[in-house]
Automatic annotation (TrEMBL):
CDD domains: AP1_sigma (cd14831). Subunit of clathrin-associated adaptor protein complex 1 that plays a role in protein sorting in the late-Golgi/trans-Golgi network (TGN) and/or endosomes. The AP complexes mediate both the recruitment of clathrin to membranes and the recognition of sorting signals within the cytosolic tails of transmembrane cargo molecules. The chain crosses the membrane at residues 20-48, 212-232. This is AP-1 complex subunit sigma-2. It comes from Etheostoma spectabile (orangethroat darter). PANTHER family: ADAPTOR COMPLEXES SMALL SUBUNIT FAMILY. Keywords: Coated pit, Cytoplasmic vesicle, Golgi apparatus, Membrane, Protein transport, Transmembrane, Transmembrane helix, Transport.
Length: 249
């Protein structure tokens, strides 16, 4: 009897009649989501405080400095004049403005008229989550004193105004690797400076470090440079000690 039950279970095949429509629906939903994300393109992003101080600006369209200042001034005044319970979407010129306030900072983005406002809000929130994860309870001072990190996180998240990476884990991993590389380069610069190497030699060594030269070969190269400098100093000292004064002059 057990064999019959086992045989009947083994002979059962999944019903393709309901699997096929489900797979079609899933593929359609996935293609729609990907098309929406691929067609989405942000024009620019502004971060400013309640006092109207600009903390970060990222432009994805070519504009002159004068036009950028004019747009920034108009948008900051417009957003700050709105009441807290008003909608976070507004029409401005031929664009749509999407903004959201987090603590003392306003995150303001401009998108095309056909783009989705909710996706823009989600992108703003994801960027805030990345900042909060990196700095640990991020505040306005973190962005003021570490603005280059804020720009780097934004560049890892958005490329050309489009979301290139939606995974927080992957973005933070890329940032950690960049921080580690920067720490290694800073340490090597301090080491080269303590050895008293000339600037051309330091530049050449830094190029080798960035090109991925193995650490052991780099240490051997530094040891050879140190020995050559010591050899030159010993020769100079021996020359001053044993040569006659008449020949020295």
């Amino acid at each position: 009897m057990n064999n019959g039950v086992s045989a009947s279970l083994a002979n059962q095949q999944p019903d393709a009649d309901w699997l096929s429509p489900l797979s079609v629906c899933l593929s359609v939903c996935l293609s729609v989501c990907l098309s929406v994300l691929s067609s989405f393109q942000m024009q620019f992003m502004l971060l400013f405080s309640r006092q109207g101080k600009l903390r970060l600006q990222k432009w994805y369209v070519p504009l002159s400095d004068r036009e950028k200042k004019k747009i920034t001034r108009e948008l900051v005044q417009t957003v700050l004049a709105r009441k807290p319970k008003m909608c976070s979407f507004l029409e401005w010129r031929d664009l749509k403005i999407v903004y959201k306030r987090y603590a003392s900072l306003y995150f303001c983005c401009a998108i095309e008229d056909q783009d989705n406002e909710l996706i823009t809000l989600e992108i703003i929130h994801r960027y805030v989550e990345l900042l909060d994860k990196y700095f640990g309870s991020v505040c306005e001072l973190d962005i003021i004193f570490n603005f280059e990190k804020a720009y780097f996180i934004l560049d890892e998240f958005l490329l050309g105004g489009e979301a290139q990476e939606t995974s927080k884990k992957n973005v933070l991993k890329a940032i950690e690797q960049a921080d580690l590389l920067q720490e290694n380069l800073d340490f090597q610069m301090r080491l080269f400076a303590e050895l008293g190497l000339p600037s051309p030699v330091m530049s050449s060594l830094m190029c080798l470090c960035t090109d991925g030269l193995p650490s052991l070969l780099l240490l051997l190269l530094l040891l050879l440079l140190l020995l050559s400098s010591l050899h030159a100093e010993l020769l100079s000292a021996w020359h001053l000690s044993f040569c006659p004064l008449s020949t020295c002059h």
